[in-house]
């Protein structure tokens, strides 16, 4: 077992997916409250209004379960509109008090809070002012970040600015996520602005300079693999890699967009407006890099190759490919492309069950596929660590079934099942597996 002794073992969640309490104690709606309320936007019209009700159940339910799991870190996010109901300006004391109590309770129990500022839930009031396509959002985010670092910098040792900025692109360009626009140029502007906002957040962090705290960002890497070596498949792979993850890693870790992406967007008439100093902001040194990794993505223009793959591949019961080497590949990739110097944390990894997960006779869900998936990823992660890569933590997504965005409550990512009517949480077999794995890795068993 070569996971370092002080390795962070965690589970991850986000405010918009677990908290509920959407209208409590002065919180105002986020773009997800608005979007989900529109017909046809989420599975069965599922809303995040109550979700897992963690706003009211953190102390009596979530925290005891985190302790029982034996994690030494918990990744969660702050709901921007709970702490700043107007997006900017006056802080909401009740919202601030909630987070303060949560962070302190985690620390008291030896669980390091790892806090994300922006996990997709822009205050609706800011969307009404143009949201992520209005450049002022960079200042709005900077103000929010500055306020959070000032208030919680001494109780939160790990921060990240934004989580998976690709979601912002999807929300403005493809419509499947909030706020639900389908305009490619807006999507590109929104994702450029969020990258610059990330930089503004790092700048705010350095200005506040909380002692013993670290700042990072969370990006998801879904490496494309060409199913044949035809020039068409190679070109498709390259194009999708550029658009789906290099768009984010390039300006953050490399200080610029690739010539390829700039040329393509120019040709497509969707190139975003950029300012000269933007890239100084996007590429400031980070204390760590948060890597979300779930899978690779096989691509081909060749129907036969596609069919052969679908018939011959190694799949989980949710029909996604079982390819745990994805984590190893992604770590190598960051090293090869950017010679990344800061430590890496795997800030998310996990898999889902679609629909009602069957409960076995012993009363629990035997999610053996999830166990296989997680065990496989951990094996490949260990291999990367053995090779000398500086990876310092792993967060399983997720502590419990929750509001999975447009899939609402149909995709279940939890290692515990959530009864959304009673709010009770029941461990699945994978939770026991993870608890034992952590104990063993931490030398506690
Ligand atoms: C990415 C996101 O960060 C998280 O919000 C989402 O639930 C998981 N991956 C699973 O899709």
Structural features, described:
- Helices cover 44% and strands 14% of the residues.
- The protein has helices at residues 15-18, 31-36, 54-69, 80-83, 93-108, 124-127, 137-152, 166-174, 184-208, 231-254, 259-268, 278-282, 303-312, 325-338, 368-386, 429-441; strands spanning 8-12, 73-77, 112-118, 158-163, 214-220, 224-226, 288-292, 297-299, 344-349, 353-354, 391-397, 411-412, 416-418, 425-427.
- A hairpin with a 6-residue loop joins strand 13 (416-418) and strand 14 (425-427).
- The radius of gyration is 21 Å and the shape is globular.
- 49% of the residues are buried.
- Bound molecules: 1-deoxynojirimycin.
Annotation field: number of helices: 16
Helix content: 40-55%
Apparent shape: globular
What is the end-to-end distance?
13 Å
Quick one: how many beta strands?
14
Provide the spatial order of strands within the biggest beta sheet: 1-2-3-4-5-7-9-11
Structural class label: alpha/beta
- Largest sheet entry: 8 strands, parallel, barrel
What is the alpha-carbon Rg in Å? Answer: 21 Å
